[in-house]
Amino acid sequence: MSHTHLIEALGVSKTYSSREGLVESLKPLDFYVKQGEFISIVGPSGCGKSTLLKMVAGLLPITSGTLTLSGSPISGPQRDVGIVFQSSVLLAWRTVLQNILLQAEIRGLDREESFNRAHQLIEMTGLKGFENKFPKQLSGGMQQRVSICRALLHNPALLLMDEPFGALDAMTRERMNLELQDIWSKSKKTVLLITHSIPEAIFLSDRVIVMSERPGSIAAIYKIELPRARTLEMMGSSDFGHYSSQIRAHFYSRGTLDH
Predict the structure, then answer these.
(1) Which residues pair with 223 in a beta bridge?
(2) I need a labelling partner for 241 at 20 to 30 A (CA). Which of 58, 118, 150, 159 fits?
(3) Minimal CA–CA distance to 120: which of 106, 92, 101, 134?
(4) Taking CA 149 as the corner, what is the angle to CA 143 and CA 54, rounded to the nearest 5 degrees?
(5) What is the DSSP letter of 60?
């Protein structure tokens, strides 16, 4: 185990039992995520991307292999992980600040420390002035910013994101990509992002893991060598286009592509 590898997976597989017998969801996977890295996972629908994320979070047990977080085997929900889902999952009757502080209540964290950290996160994500608004008073993009703050409140080493911007319109999504890049560079977190958007994966990531159709396996891993901080203009560059066509080729060759 390298001390710089926050996550290490060796031969990690997932099999479910059904009436018909055993169903293979994920073939044995080998990969690592370094401390501070931004990694995206792309692949066809149903290839096991979300299953993999849940196993890293400790919400689903692995069937075989070894999966470690900070050198320790993952078994059961992990304290050192924050999760952001596709829907912001905010409580309608709680304000922005109260929704963020829910994490502290659940985990029994120090009240004053959590309050101060919530305000730092609100500042960092551009939510200042919205602390006392309710979810229905916020746009979809702002709701997702609140859920990112909530996921970061307990200062986890790892942020897991499952299609966090999938429900947003294209322009809001691009703006959120810029903001997520900013949050990542300021918070120095390690991020593992699942996305159906190849441009989003390339724009945000240090490396992109491409998965095959179910049962999911790793088809390729691409190192994205575009300069940081990235701009939306870069999406029109030939380098960006080259990465995009390389990744797309995996899906077109098999006649499957997620939209």
Answers:
(1) 207
(2) 159
(3) 101
(4) 90
(5) S
Amino acid (one-letter) located at 213? E
Question: Do 102 and 91 form a contact (C-beta atoms < 8 A)?
Answer: yes
Q: Which of 259, 254, 153, 130 is nearest to 198 (CA)?
A: 259
Strand pairing of 5-18 and 21-34?
antiparallel
pLDDT over 50 at 83, yes or no = yes
pLDDT tens digits, one per residue of 43-57: 988 888 889 999 999
Partners of 192 in the β-ladder:
39, 160
Please identify, in words, the CATH class of the domain defined by 5-80+156-252. Answer: alpha beta
Amino acid 142 reads M
Provide the greatest CA pair distance for the chain. Answer: 55
pTM listed for this prediction: 0.90
Tell me the per-residue pLDDT of 6-54, one tens digit each, with 9 for 90 and over: 999 999 999 988 888 888 899 999 999 999 999 999 998 888 888 999 9
Beta bridge partners of 24: 15
Q: Take residue 40 and report the two structure tokens written for it.
A: 């995206």
Phi-psi region of 65 (alpha: psi -120 to 50; beta: other; left: phi over 0): left
